[in-house]
Every structure is written in structure tokens, then in C-alpha cells.
Amino acid sequence: MKTPAPMPAPRTMSLTAQHVALSLRDEPDLGPEPGWRQMDEGAIEALSRQYHEDLGSDPLWVFAYGSLIWKPDFDAVDHCRASAYGWHRSFCLKMHHWRGSPQQLGLMMALERGGRCDGVIYRVREGDRLAQIRRMVTREIRYHENIDMMRWIPVHTARGRMRALVFWAGPSGERILSKLPLHEVAHILARACGSAGSCAEYLFNTVLHLQEFGIRDRNLWTLQKLVAQEIDQLHGHPRDLAAERKGAAG
């Protein structure tokens, strides 16, 4: 049985809350991405029931690899570390709204094929499971164009192999920028911001909360260092800026 890798020792991130503050700015809510068709209540209900019925009497586990780790929209009663083989995190989903803008493209994370992704699985409360799924579909899917990126995947844990629900897995089409060099991804993440916040903020929260579970994604760890360097170049080093402001106030 494959099990998650040993927990690495904590390390200090290069990307800091000060960097994140510099990346944020007020941007208007522009609604959905161009061409995205919002699901009505009937479509959301049908999709939610499909996954609810797929489970039968089995518990619902959700695989979290990004924002669901630090901002879940369901009620969990248990969790543990898990590894998804054949998938890896990738900042590949183009966003001109949400955490990007028409003036500055943003990139959001999804799971692409290949490699291994270490994350956390959460067991969803049983009593109102259908309602919990409906909440997740409304938050994570919401548009017809995203339905195919909700799926079941096998994950490996210290408790054995399990089936888990995952969102934003297997993206394809014109919305996807795959296999960009990390320095190009960092250039985008350091600059992109939308009504939901900045891409640097999203990266910071993901890396920070993965560390709390002893998970260090090699690419994300490199990205947070590169994004910090990009923001330093754009704005000056945060410590230098803080000293300047303190001196001006004095």
C-alpha cells in the first residue's frame, strides 16, 4: 500500500503577509468569465443528486489540495492526509475575473495529469450529505463549462485506499495554460488581482496551510519564492518599505 511521504520539517516562507498586502488592490466584481453559462437551481440539484446517489451508503470524502484546505464550504467530521497518484497541482486555469482582471490575466490552480499530489481528505457530515454536496457544487462548479472538472479519484492514505470527490481536475480547452515555466507563472501571480483577491494571496494561503499538515509541494515552494522576488522588484523589499514609512512618519 502506498502511503503519504514523511512530514518535512517546517521552513520559513519567502512570500509573506507583507508581500500579499502589496499585491492587493480594489477591483470591481465583473461577474462570471466571458462565455461561462451559469447553472440554474435544477441543474445544480441534478448534478448534486448524481454524486449523492453514486455514493450509496459510503461516506463522502473530499480531496482538498488548494483553497478547500483553508476555506472549505462543507461541514467535516474527520480528516487525514492523502496522496493522489497520477495528478499534480498546476496554476493553469486562466482567469480574467475573480483573481484576475481584463488588464492582467490571473492563474488559478487545478489538477493536471501526471505525478503525485499530496493533500488532505475531509469526511463530510452524513446527516445532510445532499445539502453539503449542493453547497460545494454551487461554490466550486456553478457554471456548465466546469462540470467535467468535478470527479471521483482514488487516493492513498495511512488508513488505506479511498475514493474521494475532487474539483477542478482535468481542465482542458482554450482556458488552460499548461506547462508554463515557473518563472512565467510567478510573473503572472505577482501581478494578478481581482474582486476575490490576488493570486499571490491565493498562493500564500495554500502554501501556508499545506505546511500546517506537513505538506511541501516542490513547485509551490519554488513559486512562493519566485513570487516574493517579483513583488520585491515591483514594489521594493517589504522591510525597506516599512522602514521608509516609519521614517516618513517620524
From TrEMBL:
<dbReference type="InterPro" id="IPR036568">
    <property type="entry name" value="GGCT-like_sf"/>
</dbReference>
<protein>
    <recommendedName>
        <fullName>glutathione-specific gamma-glutamylcyclotransferase</fullName>
        <ecNumber>4.3.2.7</ecNumber>
    </recommendedName>
</protein>
<dbReference type="Pfam" id="PF04752">
    <property type="entry name" value="ChaC"/>
</dbReference>
<keyword id="KW-0456">Lyase</keyword>
<dbReference type="InterPro" id="IPR013024">
    <property type="entry name" value="GGCT-like"/>
</dbReference>
<dbReference type="InterPro" id="IPR006840">
    <property type="entry name" value="ChaC"/>
</dbReference>
